[in-house]
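Crossover junction endodeoxyribonuclease RuvC
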Amino acid sequence: MTTPSLRVLGIDPGLTRCGVGVVDVAPDRSARLVHVGVVRSSPDLAIERRLRLIADGVREVVAVHQPHVVAVERVFAQHNRHSVMGTAQASGIALLVAAEFGLEAATHTPSEVKAAVTGYGSADKAQVQAMIARLLRLDSPPQPADAADALALALCHAWRRGPAAPGASALTPAQRAWADAERRARR
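Predicted structure tokens:
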């Protein structure tokens, strides 16, 4: 009997661009892209209309792709309070939609996500995008960066959620790549 994949919806919250990415992750930690996109709202709209657009977009992704769990980027303090407020509002909407569908939701910090997918918690956006393309066997990195970040969140959550399948490596693919490179360098 084959163990089913875990379907994770990753959400990179933002008011203007809210990245959404859905992946299926097998017990051996291999992953497959299901959906990637961005929910957009115009800065010219009133805040309540913008939040409604984000909620409707996330609801549509959940309804169509039926994830098992939702992973959202944890809001952290930035220098720009206006930006933090919009991100926090979009994050709240994402968590609310997960609750509306009865889905488990989790939050992950940007450094957790970067470390999970690249092996380095301070990786830049280009490194995250390149690794996401590699891990999901895509021809090119997902654009814009919000979309790649959403996929990274989904992968991070699946890999950090619990133990891998029996006999599978407990390391994430990024950690395995680093370990393999270190072994090769020592030879």
